[in-house]
Design a protein that fits this description.
This protein has 14 helices and eleven strands. It is of the alpha/beta class. It has an eight-stranded parallel β-sheet with strand order 1-5-6-7-8-9-10-11, with helices on both faces.
């Protein structure tokens, strides 16, 4: 059994228009056929093209052919049709997928809270219907905004009723209200009570810029700010480290021992140093009066090993350090159907990555850890 804990859909062009009130149609995500490609426009901003679903597998043929713009007609049908997705999973040797958004990764930069709440709710309705086509193989992940905690809890509860098995929150919120802030305590409690896994996915920083002109269709560098250069990709784990450390040092996991949080598309190899640094800081540096102290001589790494999961794709170095990270903390993801995905060679790539890893550990990382999180 192979479970991908990080796969994606490519949202169909009519997803939001058919699920939002007419008053929001002008502001809702819609595809525009520009001269070079089809682009998503949202509330006057040109956010991204649909290339994320058009070039899957191309990197194995010729990396120079990868593009940043494409037409919807070029997108692989498995990105937006459940039956086609299942067929591609079969061809790739993947038995189950945990399914994430694509355009939704960019929507976190929209400044209007009310609009974003509506967009997320509409997406959640659609992805629940999408995954209901094969609930034993597809687990949907909701989009949950935490600008308003009460509204976020309500949407988290609604998503659980829809059958969604995870919820993506911003990988890093506004600096003034980072995840060590007491305002989040009710959402941690709600997620733990609902047994909903919280996801911290690359590129979902919550940034609140000044609202753009309602008539402007100029390309916005705001939307791609955090992944616009090679340096930003290489250092993207910075944000998830801040969020995880804030949660751990604030005692979130001590108060909510069943809460699970998963890091996605940040790979693994940073984790051993991160754990070492947290424990060193907690035990060796001068204690500030405001620093939280754990009970029973627990250390930060103890809560990481109990409550945090790390999804990776092709991190051979990280796998060699799995004894420090924790075999029970690791899960795998194919990133289908994005251009950097392992599709259509996932089984071959996994066989190479796990060539020297004991079979029982391979089974735990590729199957049982993920199955316990999302399909049990």
């Amino acid at each position: 059994m192979i479970v991908s804990t990080d796969s994606h859909v490519i949202e169909p062009p009519d997803l939001w228009i058919t699920r939002l009130p007419r008053s929001l149609h002008d502001r809702a995500p819609h595809l525009v056929a520009d001269a070079d490609a089809d682009w998503w426009y949202v509330d006057g901003l040109k956010l991204m093209s649909v290339h994320g679903g058009a070039d899957v597998g191309v990197r194995f043929e010729d990396q120079a052919k990868l593009r940043m713009a494409a037409r919807m007609s070029e997108v692989r049908r498995g990105g937006y049709e459940p039956d086609s997705k299942l067929a591609d999973m079969n061809a790739d040797g993947v038995d189950r997928e945990v399914v994430y958004t694509t355009l939704g990764l960019q929507l976190w930069r929209l400044p209007d809270t009310a609009l974003l709440q509506s967009l997320f709710a509409a997406y959640n309705d659609w992805i629940a219907s999408f995954c209901a086509a094969a609930p034993h193989r597809l687990a949907g992940v909701a989009l949950v905004l935490l600008d308003d905690i009460d509204a976020g809890i309500a949407e988290l509860q609604r998503a659980a009723r829809l059958g969604l098995r995870g919820a993506m929150i911003s990988v890093y919120p506004d600096e003034s209200i980072a995840y060590d802030h007491p305002r989040y305590e009710p959402i941690w409690a709600a997620a733990a009570d609902l047994n909903v896994v919280l996801s911290l996915h690359i590129g979902t920083n919550r940034v609140l810029p000044s609202p753009p002109s309602s008539t402007s269709h100029a390309p916005s560098d705001m939307a791609l700010k955090f992944l616009s250069t090679p340096a930003r990709y290489v250092t993207a784990a910075h944000w998830v480290q801040l969020s995880l450390a804030n949660m751990i040092f604030a005692g979130v996991f001590e108060r909510h021992p069943t809460l699970k949080v998963v890091s996605l598309e940040h790979e693994i190899a940073w984790v051993p140093h991160f754990l070492q640094s947290m424990d060193y800081t907690y035990t060796q540096r001068a204690r500030r009066s405001q620093w939280y102290r754990f009970q029973d001589e627990a250390r930060p790494s103890d809560f990481f090993h109990r409550n945090v999961m790390i999804s990776f794709q092709e991190d051979a170095l990280g796998l060699r350090l799995r004894d420090v990270v924790g075999v029970g903390n690791l899960v795998w993801g194919s990133d289908y159907p994005h251009a950097e995905s392992t599709f259509p060679h996932s089984r071959m790539i996994l066989d190479r990555l796990f060539a020297e890893i004991p079979a029982e550990e391979r089974t735990q990382i590729l199957d049982t850890n993920a199955t316990a999180l999302y399909f049990s």
